[in-house]
Every structure is written in C-alpha cells, then in structure tokens.
Known about the structure:
- The chain is α+β, with helices and mostly antiparallel strands.
- It folds into two domains: 1-106, no CATH class; 191-440, Cytochrome-c3 Hydrogenase, chain B (Orthogonal Bundle).
- The protein contains 16 helices and 14 strands.
- It has helices spanning 11-22, 71-81, 169-173, 178-185, 193-207, 214-242, 246-267, 287-312, 315-321, 329-334, 339-343, 351-354, 375-398, 450-460, 469-476, 481-484, and strands at residues 5-8, 26-34, 37-44, 49-55, 59-61, 84-86, 128-133, 145-151, 154-161, 276-277, 280-281, 416-423, 428-435, 441-447.
- Helix 5 runs antiparallel to helix 6 (214-242).
Amino acid sequence: MGKAQITTVTLAEWVVAAEALAAGDATLLSLWGADGAVQMALMDAGHGLRVLTLPTETTFPSVARHHAPAQRLERTMTDLYGLTPAATPDPRPWLDHGRWPMRHPLGAKGPVAPEPPYAFLPVEGESLHQVAVGPVHAGIIEPGHFRFTAQGETVVRLEQRLGYTHKGVDALMLGASLERGAQIAGRVSGDSAVAYQWGFARAVETALDASVPPRATALRAVMAELERLANHLGDIGAICNDAAFAMMLAHCGALREHTLRAVGLAFGHRFCRDCICPGGVARDLTTEGAGALRDLVAEVRAKFPALVALYDGTASLQDRTVATGTLSPALAARFGAGGYVGRASGRDFDTRRDLPYAPYDRLSFTVPTRAEGDVNARVWVRIHEVEQSLALLSQLLDTLPEGPIHAALRAPTEPSAALTLTEGFRGDILIWLAMDASGTITRCHLRDPSWFQWPLLEAVIDGNIIADFPLCNKSFNCSYSGVDL
Length: 485
C-alpha cells in the first residue's frame, strides 16, 4: 500500500473536493479537526488516497452541504474543536450532550451553556406516533437512543442519538507516547482490538518508514482472521436469535466461545489485547498454540456447514431475513459502506485486496459479495467470510515463517504523519497519525467503519415494521464505542 498524498488546499480547492464527492468521483474516508485546520481523507476510483488540509481557526465550507455522509463527522468536529461548517444542513451537536465541563474541549475552550432539548427531525403526516427506545436497553449492550416515528407498525422515520459512550479518545491521544497510543487504539472498540492495534502500528511504521519481520506480519494476520471468525460466528447466531431461532445462537455461540478460548491459549488474551505493537507483535505463537488453532479450524470446518444448511433450510428464518432491511447498491456506494454491509449491497471493496498490505499481498482469498442488500445477504456474506477466514488461517499456519517477532523502530528525526486503512471485521478502519520530532503524538484520528454504517441503518428500516428493527440492527452490528470516541 502506497503512502497517502498529503496536500494543503485553499477554500476553493476544498469545495471542489466536496463537489467531487457529491458527483461520485471519490469516496469520503473521513473528516476531522486538528489544531488550526480541518482535514479530509478521500479515495479516488483507482484506490489512490489523499489527505487534504485546510488551515482555519473558525469556519470552513461544509462538506455535508454537498455530501450527506460527512454530516456526523462535521458535527463531531464542531463539538470537539469549535470549528463551524458554513452552510451546514445540520448544525445540531452530536457527541456533546450538554454534560461536559466545557464546550469545545480540544479547541477554544468555552463555558458550558444551557442546552435545549435535542431537536429530533420533524415528521408530518396523519396517524403518526413516536416510539422512543434506549439509551438503556433490556440486554447487556452499549447505550444508544432510537426514535421511531411510525404509522401503525410501519416505520416512516428512524433517528439515532449516540454519544453515550464518549470517553475522550482524541484528547487522550494528544501528547501520548507511541506505546500509550497503541494501548488506547486497541481499546476504542473492544470487538475490534486486533484491527485497531494493527492499524495504529501500521500508521507508526508508515510514518517512520519502518519494516516489520515477516513472522510478525503473519501473526498479525492470524490474530485478525481469528477476530473476524469469532465476530462473524457470534453475529450469525445473534441474527437468527432475533428471528426467534435460538438453536442457531446456541451452536454459533459455542463455536465463537471455542474460538476465543483457542485465541486465549495461543496469544494469552481472548481478544488479543496489547498483542500487536509498533514494530511487530508482543506475543509469539508456540507449538501448543499453533496446535490449538489447527484444532479450532478443523472443528469449525466440521460443524459450520450443518449450521449453514440449517439456516438456509429453515423457512421461518428465510421469511424474516429475505427482503428485510434492504440497502440499495447506490446508497452503499455513496456512503462508502465497508465490510459485510457494503459487500452485501454490491460494493466490492476490501482493503486486504484493494490496498494490499503484508501478508495479504501473498495470500490467496476471495471477497464475497451479494447484490440483494437485505438481512439475508448480510448473513450470507458473513457465512462466506467465515469460510475465507478458515482458508486464510490454514495458509498462514502452514507457511508461518521463522524469525523475530519485533523490530526496533528508529527514533524520528522530524515531524511526520501517515494514513492507513486496515480491514476489520466490520470493514475498513482508518488511522491518521501525526507525531512530532520526539515521537510524541500530536494528532491521532481513528475512524470506525460504523461512522458510515449507522446512517444507513436509519435508511433501511424505512418501510419495515418496528418488530424487524432488532433484526436489521443486528445484521449491521454497528459499534457504538467506535463512533462515540
């Protein structure tokens, strides 16, 4: 994967870039604030990456005015930095619920002002009623508020209110060492610890032009595919459970638990937390650990096909998942939806293949896609990705190179920055890292794929019944923590 092109632009050039997004000539990767600037990452049709920097202390031309996927990112930038998008279509706060000790904590800090009640978007029509769900839910899940407007049982609008798991990640990264930054990155979204750690490590290594030992890159991929496997198995079972088919939840849950136990035995932590670090990995794979992983692959290969046949052959399941929560290919492409959400709606993009990084550049795998865009399609993409992860694990374990697992990084000699995209189980995770000449982090922006998936969940529930929301929601399985930062 080549380095992103980093360019300082004028106001006019910034607007041209926003118009290119609206025209579909580029994909928005992220948008974030910095000290005295706003920055935007784009990907062109040939998968070339660009980072645009627009110097400003106050306002900037709204990207969301031209391109809706930028809305929540702009609102977050305003909350944190006080940078105001001019002519924005949605000036409401996003992360700031009026309970912080100050306004704009990363910019020109200001006193807390009384916040009026959050203004949900109006809906007009006859016989409409609202159903408010959350932020506290009946299950042990993260908090989020969902405001349904319905006509009878049919949903005519869903609006989300998130931000309840805000933990100040951007502020924690400021002034942190690279070691501390790696720890923070691995805790942004717990079910994606490997992907975030790997993305952060790659950003450090790209900025410092450092090489990683082959064994370390192979072990990173082993961890990543195990993370993907465990999450997909859990999701497949949970989706079926929301369609009142608990048997699939039980069997998939057992396989997920066996996966996590094997991971714990192999790498010392069930979620591989702190196992990836800049320069390599912190834990090697022993002969015993490799044997446990081979046994796991054999077990899942033996048991998973029967579960797939059970899903495919159960009419009551198909009745709930087929044609439910349909995301159009056009909308998936417009939002640059990653992972199973985008691929189930025909967006054929995977950073492991399209922006290849070691060791995926030497491995054989396919990227499954579907065109239907419904819950069923998102289940099938997961099913095929489980199969691909099993194949990748076999390749990695069979060809695992010998040698060191970590290389010392050279000390930086000047300020540097880098952008990386790393494939997590939900899709591409973006890391923008800037550091000074001492190696201290001056800005680290972490963008979860859920930033562009949550708004699409609002779109797909339109016209469905309220009772199908849990099914649609679980088929997306967006991260709350990953976007609340």
